[in-house]
Specification:
This protein is of the alpha+beta class and about 500 residues long. Helix content is about 55%, strand content about 15%. The strands form four sheets. A five-stranded mixed β-sheet has the order 8-7-6-11-12, with helices on both faces. Strands 1-2-5 form a three-stranded antiparallel β-sheet, with no helix packed on it. The longest helix has 28 residues.
Length: about 500
């Protein structure tokens, strides 16, 4: 083994010298820099693989003697060496190991070299897994596979990347549970909750959904189906006092007020309804249960004002009331604004100055707390406007929406207290967390695979990726190699 180690290092040194000579020759030839750069990269990968192989060989095979006592039992060194495939970012290695157990046909109980090196459960190195999945959470599996192949020259299958994604996602919940609560000096005085829903295209199950429709689709018929993912967000923010006119300028005239406070310790989650152990677990219940836990953890002393900003989806508000108490409920102002535009187009052409004036006036009144005044005015216009049936129905929907959400539209009080009134965080999350990755051309997901992707994508968007990768390496080493201390004590003796 010493000879093998020296051979690997000598090969690496020789390749390094060859690389230097090739660069000198390229300089003499006047080769173009991009050609030299590409050749250098290929040679560096080869040098890295040889050097890594030399490191592995330098550790030996893990032979700690003919017998090993573990958990009160005497294990025997099994005859021969057992090779293990290891795919690193430099290429594939073969690692010969000594193993201990009761007999050859039984499970290997202690593999000292695996524990010494901290090898992952799968063939793929932790570094490669991290790089693979950092690409997969942003792009399709196929695009990610090609990217890694172009850079590292490694051929991986889509199936292996999907499996890697699911295995990695299984450790996200433990990672979240291990994270400390933000310290009070890193928080602001308003704790903001928000939630929304976004559909994920799901593969059809012929047994449950029937055969896929063929030919031209009829009205209401769809080639696929979607399942709603509930997206939740939580963060703290400092009060931001504004006037109704300032909000109108910001919303309609794109004149943002300077020095807007920045959200702190923002966390996002997304959950699909799943069947686990024969029991259906609702995505909304999981998200609002998590929001409740966040309130309890981040507002233990009750000094923060808790507010929730969402759209008019009644199921979301019912879930909030069920899980969270003592929260100020705020209808997202942009959803109210959409309804005002709907009302304006009942009377004026789209894009007209009259429509904009109509919306501007009523938005300012709503922000001043005069929601009832706006509703009453719309009812009068409905009566006197001589509208078509279609437009009357459209206006009626606007009025009902405002009436149903009136108790969540005390914007004069919210602005005076400096509360946020827009759900931009979760709106953006629905787009970034769900839509941008889950709704690519032709994409169809199974529920388990979709939830795994959402879990990892949330970690990535929460800027926790590197922390998560380090956590899972440490977690896996503890789970896979509980005999670590025994190995280290025996290793020094064997050496």
């Amino acid at each position: 083994m010493i000879l093998a180690k020296e051979q690997a290092f000598l090969k690496a040194e020789k390749e390094f010298q060859n690389m230097l000579e090739s660069v000198k020759q390229a300089a003499a030839n006047g080769d173009m820099i991009h050609e030299v750069e590409g050749d250098l990269w290929e040679q560096l990968l080869k040098i890295g693989r040889l050097t890594l192989q030399g490191y592995v060989d330098s550790q030996g095979t893990g032979n700690l003697g003919p017998n090993l006592v573990y958990e009160g039992r005497e294990l025997h060194r099994l005859d021969g060496l057992f090779d293990r495939r290891y795919v690193s970012i430099f290429g594939e290695l073969l690692i010969p190991r000594t193993v201990y157990g009761t007999r050859l046909t039984q499970k290997f109980e202690v593999i000292p070299l695996d524990g010494r090196l901290g090898l992952p459960e799968s063939d793929f190195s932790y570094v490669l897994q991290g790089w693979d999945q950092s690409l997969c959470v942003q792009n399709s599996y196929d695009e990610s596979r090609h990217t890694i192949q172009r850079i590292l020259g490694l051929g991986q299958t889509i199936g292996s990347l999907e499996q890697m994604n699911r295995c990695m996602a299984e450790e996200v919940e433990e990672f979240h549970d291990s994270q400390p609560v933000p310290s009070p000096d890193q928080e602001d005085s308003i704790l903001v909750l928000t939630a929304d829903g976004k559909g994920v295209p799901i593969r059809r199950d012929p047994q449950q959904d029937g055969p896929s429709p063929r030919g031209r689709l009829t009205k209401g018929q769809k080639a696929g189906k979607k399942r709603e993912a509930c997206v939740g967000g939580v963060y703290t923010v400092a009060p931001f006092v504004r006037t109704a006119k300032e909000v109108v300028d910001e919303v309609l005239r794109k004149k943002k007020k300077a020095k807007r406070p920045v959200p702190k310790n923002k966390q996002l989650r997304a959950a699909l309804t799943q069947t686990v152990g024969g029991k259906e677990i609702k995505g909304k219940e999981r998200i609002f249960s998590w929001l409740s836990e966040q309130v309890e953890a981040r507002n233990k002393d009750g000094t923060k004002q808790v507010v929730c900003v969402m759209d008019g989806d009644r199921s979301l508000w019912k879930m909030l009331i069920r899980f969270v108490v003592g929260v100020v409920c705020i209808l997202d102002i942009y959803h109210a604004l959409e309804r005002l535009w709907d009302a304006a187009y009942c009377f004026f052409p789209e894009g007209s100055g009259e429509a904009k004036t109509f919306v501007t006036e009523r938005l300012e009144r709503i922000l001043e707390g005069k929601v009832g005044y706006v509703i009453g005015g719309l009812k009068q216009m409905d009566t006197k406007g001589n509208l078509s049936k279609r437009r009357r129905e459209q206006l009626s929907k606007v009025i009902v929406y405002l009436e149903n959400n009136r108790k969540f539209m005390k914007y004069d009080e919210y602005l005076e207290s400096g509360y946020p009134i827009g759900s931009g965080v979760v709106e953006g999350a629905c787009r970034h967390l769900v839509k941008d990755r889950m709704e690519g051309t032709g994409m169809r997901w199974r529920v388990v695979g979709a939830q795994s992707m959402l879990n990892l994508r949330a970690v990535f968007l929460n800027d926790e990726w590197d922390f998560f990768q380090q956590y899972r390496i440490e977690l896996n080493c503890r789970k896979l190699y509980p005999y670590g201390e025994i190995i280290e004590s025996q290793w020094s003796k064997a050496a």
